[in-house]
Design brief:
The protein is an all-alpha fold. The chain has helices spanning 4-19, 22-100.
């Protein structure tokens, strides 16, 4: 990607070469390099932003999966507790009936 720093840098670099001004040529190279660094920094920033969004989405997905699993476990535990209660009541009834005989 070309930005104004790249263009200014190339203009100064060429002008320095044409006029024999090593300082202007060096300044142009530095401006061009600065422009390239800004582009890379911008790309890196976008990459980091995308990675963060992906990580956030994955964390949210994992959180939802854990929440759903917790609800399933809770429901299973409640069902088993009711089954145990029913079994216990049946045992108590059986004991009472055997005592009445």
């Amino acid at each position: 990607m070309v930005n104004k720093d790249n263009v200014k840098g190339k203009v100064n670099e060429v002008a320095g070469k044409v006029t024999g001004d090593k300082g202007q040529e060096a300044k142009g190279k530095a401006q061009d390099l600065f422009g390239k660094l800004k582009d890379k920094a911008s790309e890196l920033g976008k990459d980091v932003e995308h990675a963060f969004e992906h990580a956030k989405d994955e964390a949210e997905k994992a959180g939802n999966e854990m929440k759903n699993k917790a609800h399933e476990l809770k429901d299973d535990a409640e069902r088993k507790a009711h089954e145990l209660k029913d079994d216990a009541e049946k045992v108590v009834d059986d004991v009472k009936k055997s005592m009445d005989k």
